[in-house]
Amino acid sequence: GDSICRAAVPAVAPLQFSPGHFSRPLMPGFDYSKWDNIELSDDEEVHPNIDKDSWVRMRHKDRVEREEDENNKRRELGERLAKVGDELKVFGEAGKGHLKAKKLQEEADRLNAELETMDKNRKWNADNMCQTASDKVAVSGPGADVGPEPRLKGEAAAAGYCEFVEEHEDLLEQYIALGSGELEQVRNFLMLHGGVLLQGEHAETYLLLDCLEKEMNDEHEDMLLAARQSQLLTQVREYSRATGRPARDGVPTMFGRLIEHEGTQEAFQESLNTFIRRIEKRAPEKRREMDAEAAEEEEEVGPGGLDPREVFDTLPKAMQEAFLAKDVARLHQIVESMPADEAKHHMIRCEESGLWVPDGREGAPPYRQ
């Protein structure tokens, strides 16, 4: 055992000693803690009635299988960690406050911790004790380069929206309330709270939906004020992408131009007017869609408020077949053969969903008595 790693690691003492017994200084950058968990199957003592060669072969096989399982798990963790790192890079430094980025960083920290625990508890032997390469992937944050707020799409843009609104709705409403205020007030507010409002798509989404809801509810003047706030936020983030800088860094410059330059004011007003026209066009369309959906939902339930499809799916197969065949006589036979409580349960649900309409001329049906 003494000669296994001596050539590769000159400072390592014989295997029977722990790191604390080293008489020479430890080599910087080399992880000596692994020597704490050395196992050598050929050094094991066995009972005289046990064949040592067979025992060693069995232990070696067990060790190989265990190491294979550990290596597979380590590889899976490493691959997932690399994927998380790639996803984090999309957000950049400016997007590290985004809820999705925070969750990815938490996952990266957890994966790294799990890999560290595996390394710490790993058993070493003659086959692997000179292999010091690490499977870990360093993920210390969403990129070191300071850049603009990313333009997210699909699931990345939608992820965490409800949580964002729940946490920051008061702040969003305060920002919207500045719609009738001076631009200097909006600028100062974004300088103070831009870390929340300017990171991620959620604030923009909230303001867009707020404008749409106000217009649908005939609150046109309030919509106009909210629309200005929405477009100011959007323009700051667009300016961030154009300059390649974090959004909050662009607030003073963009608002300075908007306050002082007539050309910038005209361009912003044109953009705002376009946005308002889209809201005005979309609001009645959305209202019609919602009314149609509500009417469709009302049609889908029976007189007792139950969905006929859901009720049908819960019926015994024989009852389903009778309904599909429209065989009322067969349905009566099936119901009469059931225990009274079960028959009552199914028939009441059929009636309340509209699947079954009792003959009112005969009085209350038996299951209602």
From TrEMBL:
It comes from the Eukaryota. Gene3D superfamilies: 6.10.140.250, Cdc37, Hsp90 binding domain. GO terms for biological process: protein folding; protein stabilization. The keyword Methyltransferase does not apply. It is found in: Cytoplasm. Residues 292-301 have a biased composition (Acidic residues). Keywords: Chaperone, Cytoplasm. Residues 133-297 form the Cdc37 Hsp90 binding domain. Pfam families: CDC37_C, CDC37_M, CDC37_N. Residues 301-364 form the Cdc37 C-terminal domain. GO terms for molecular function: heat shock protein binding; protein kinase binding; protein-folding chaperone binding; unfolded protein binding. Its main location: cytoplasm. One of its GO terms (cellular component) is cytoplasm. PANTHER family: CDC37-RELATED, HSP90 CO-CHAPERONE CDC37. This is Hsp90 chaperone protein kinase-targeting subunit. It comes from Noctiluca scintillans.
